[in-house]
Amino acid sequence: MVHHIHPVALVGNFAAWKAIDIDMFVRLYKPAHSVDFGWYSKENSPKSKLPPLSKKSEENLRALLHWINELYLSCHRDSKIEYIAYMLATARVEAYDFQAGAFFGPISEIISYETAEHQYGCGPTAAAPDRARNFGNTAIGDGHKYRGRGLVQITWKINYERFSKITGVDLVANPDAALDWKNATSIMIEGMLTGAFTGKKLADFMFINNFDYKNARKIINGIDKNIILAEYAEKFAIILRRCI
């Protein structure tokens, strides 16, 4: 006897996933952007007031939430609000285009060729050539070619190689592909879920009753700006609980 499964039932069984209500999220975030979230120019500086959320920043935020829905919430049944909150906090800080005053969009590190070669290169002007070679930057020009990009500012050729395998896109040959929305969001999500950035992953900081937002910065970059990231993530979590 052949049993037929109605397509709607199939969708109900396998694709019943939660999603962020993007319109509601933006509606709740916009009035909080300028003062409640604000901006810290340095780790120990007082919080400064920002102009209202710009049109470009809102477009970026909507795109980011869309891709989080598509690449995280639709694929992971054990998805956690705390994880999304930390992703959003990270993107808000790491992908701030200060020249354009735009938040939440994939960006390329704003740095000159000479400075990039000094910081990340292996040539005669390099600050730490051996370190650069250890991270895959073995040719003159690699420092600038593999400078920070995306929502989390992946840097070094070794990381472009690693995320080429994760995304299925040749980021080594075309580093600017890390600026594509789908690729940039995939890099952020998979890197934070698997520990591909530093060996630390989101699950390492999830406990029974709480998420350790302060130490979760180790997923990306030690403890740099960890207090700022923790504050933003906690605020994002409050908004998310009203939108999912």
From TrEMBL:
Pfam families: Glyco_hydro_19
Domain Glycoside hydrolase family 19 catalytic, residue spans: 128-177
GO molecular-function terms, A-Z: chitinase activity
Lineage top rank: taxon: Bacteria
Gene3D superfamilies listed in its UniProt record: 1.10.530.10
Signal peptide (residue range): none
GO BP of this protein: cell wall macromolecule catabolic process; chitin catabolic process
Protein name (Swiss-Prot/TrEMBL): Chitinase class I
Source species: Paraburkholderia rhizosphaerae
